[in-house]
Amino acid sequence: MAKANASRTAISNDERLGNLRLRRKSAWAKLPIVKQLRVAVGWQKGMLVTGLVLCAFFLIVALFAPAIAPYGHAQIKDASGSFPAQAAPSAKHIWGTTAGGFDVFSRVVWGTRTAIIAIIVAVLLSIFAGVLLGLVSGYFGGWVDRVLVMIADAIYSFPSLLLAILMAIMISHGQSGLWSGILASGISITVVYIPQYFRTIRAEVIRIKESAYIESARVVGASTWRIMTKHLFKNSTRTLPVILTLNSSEAILTLAGLGFLGFGIEPTAAAEWGYDLNRSVSDVTAGIWWTAVFPGLAIVLVVLGITLVGESLNDLADPRLRARKSAGEVVGSIEDTSVDEKEGTSARNEVIAELDAAGNPIAAKPVATVTDYDEAFRASEWTGEGDTGNRGEE
Amino acid sequence: MTQQAQHTQHNAQQGDLANIKDLSVSFMTDAGSIKAVEDVNFTIPRKTVVGVVGESGSGKSVTARSIIKLLPETATTSGAIYLSNREDTGTLDVLSLSGEQLRTMRGSQAAMVFQEPNSVLNPVYTIGWQIEEGLRAHGMKDKKELRAKAIDILKKVGIPDAETRVDYYPHQFSGGQKQRIVIAMALVLNPGLILADEPTTALDVTVQAEILDLLRLARDEFGASVLIITHNMGVVADIADEVVVMYRGHVVEQGPVEQIFYKPQHEYTQRLLAAVPRIGQHLVVRDRKGDPIERKTDWHDEPLAVKARNLSITYPGHLMQPDFKAVDGIDFEIHRSEVLGLVGESGSGKSTTGRAIAGLQKVTGGSLNVLGVEMNGVKERDFKAKRADIGFVFQDPGSSFDPLMTIAENVAEPLLVHHKFGSVAEAKNYVGDLLEMVQLPRVYMDRYPHELSGGQRQRASLARGLALKPSLLIADEPTSALDVSVQAKVLELFKKLQAEIGFACLFITHDLAVVDMLADRIMVMHKGKIVEHDDADDIIERPQNPYTQKLLASLPLPDPVKQREHRARLRELLAAQQ
User: Which Pfam families match (chain B) (predicted)?
Assistant: First the structure.
């Protein structure tokens, strides 16, 4: 049958299209970032790869901080005695030391850990609350929605850093150890970001709940819980990876801001870049550059890396913003969009049939009905009361 | 291409307005490059309406857009499109133009009319400003002259009271008037060629007739050629002088309209014409032996499935607006195993009625009894059990399935909700039977909705609607988003299943020809009221109500000669009704 319409569609001998479309993507290729990496081309790919490399670099540093850092985050002396204060970079302290006698390199390496943990805590906390509230608010509407939107708007209208400071003071009274400090920063960041997730999810839910498949679920009598968990949740959270990455970078900035203002984590509890920057303010005027440059650079690079990933995910998610290679010349085959079935099984459908037959034992028997009209199956058989014993209905 | 070469070409093509030569277009997509059209050749003579027909995806729009090089960046073209101006003094190869030349050519030599008038007009500018914009872009400066031209063209396209309404905003016009304004925007620069991409698809059939008259006016009085893209064979028969049939990116046939309709050469054209629904053609489905499949019982004797008395549905108005009565005191009933056709134009309240029966819309007045449950003031808890007995088929096959669930999961949803099966895996066998019943292969179960074509999805939708063996099925425009050949198949399947299973059915549609193929009785709705309600044959053959008469007369027949007489009858009817 494939040869019959070879002349017209130029598709018969060209199985590339069929294969291209039909190859079931592996689970690996479906992962959020891997998928985008495969479709990206040109400068968009460059952006994404740069971002991913930066993020991966900091993740590795955070993971192996104990192995990489020569000293502890609060270490001011070793076997050979106390570290010199404000020493210039040397073989012993490759990025120098601070006024308090900390090793800058070790502080920056340990600080990566703090930053990554803070991101994870902040994003996890805000995403759960935000998504849940967004789903409820968007689907039910009414007064619940109005009140939640009002609260979200009120939080929006506060300067986020001020709000974070307030929360930090409330939770930890200003200063604290590693976990309580991270939690304090994490929760304060959470408060600021819940409204963002809430808004995004709510907008998606309001759009989706009008669509025919939600109506169709309602028409068959599906419960609200089923509609929310089965249909709305999965369909409304597709844009989340993008916001998630963008918010992570903001979370780092907020954490650093808190540390810089003195509401972060005690230097003896954990290394934190914002705090180090704060301490180095006076050094800068004295010509001591190394205490400020390295933590500052770390903040810039982490934020840059995450933002690059986020922005390129955002562009790649939108087919209108996604760059594509130019074809250069008129090539390719005509896609089998025809719905005119009397034409017979087209090449693409044959490919489907072959693949299905190979992968699915049920189809291995000659079901030539890929698109054909199957007279053999009568609806009356199906509706017949007695003769369809094992159909399992009722 | 050099100036010299253009002139040589021009001499060869003297006479025709446009000549499309070996046009191929391919697009770069995520899945590699796809050819949309290949080696397309046809000509557009002067002062002629050329109709381009073909199913969706056959490359009609891409071809038309290539004529003014309005293609996305990812497109690559080859071949040539020679477009000469009105006066026949020069010819351009459009595909070799760029930048300023292209801008000058667009609008002044070829203008485009799009499908959806609502999204073409900018809501923040007056229509006068938008008409003048084209003139300004082509160098007219004088404000008074601009305004005079805008008013003049509005009068010509039949906007009453043009002097005042030139300062109105788009939202102050109806859909049909908006399309007139869009056509006015195209005509104001007096281009030689008007490209109309499905100009009437978004409009009601009575408005469609008016817009087609206007396009005829563009040919006869403005002397322009019109390239009209449509999938409606009735529209082609009504307006086109020449027809180009496209199929899978190729032109399979071109010729005068009579030749295409009466002596189609290519087998695709023949099939396309055979699939077009025609008034008075009763659909008979046959089994394998060729015997017609009939219903086992006479629906007249069956009990009522739905009974409405003085049914009203009101949408509350916002702020100062008054409430909107979508359905205004209607009476009807549907017997078991009967097909009731509900016909009306957009805004007539037909969908609202269907949704009320399915419990998707609150009933605000009167009584609506569905399978023994009174819907006025019903609680979801009391109705839930009855939902298993009601199926619903939605209009848009694109959005009626959850895109993240497989076809099996989607079709099995009603079964799971009503606890017929515990999980999708258990229901798999039964879902497979359902898919085979709607003539889809079992293996489609594991596909995702976007991997199916529109017609296949609509069949799967029918399978889901019938999964619980409902005694009442509501079909809300189930075929209006489908191509003609697919529509024919879905209708045939629908009729077959209805005859075999014998469910009661409310078939909502705007297309009288479709409803005539299926329905036992027809109910015509207009502005929330039922204007006529009778046996299908009586309504089609002897319509009593003036609105029904107008609706029937406006429906273009897929036959050029008959349509000419039909059009004359519409004119008489409209004259008589005024």
Answer: ABC_tran, oligo_HPY
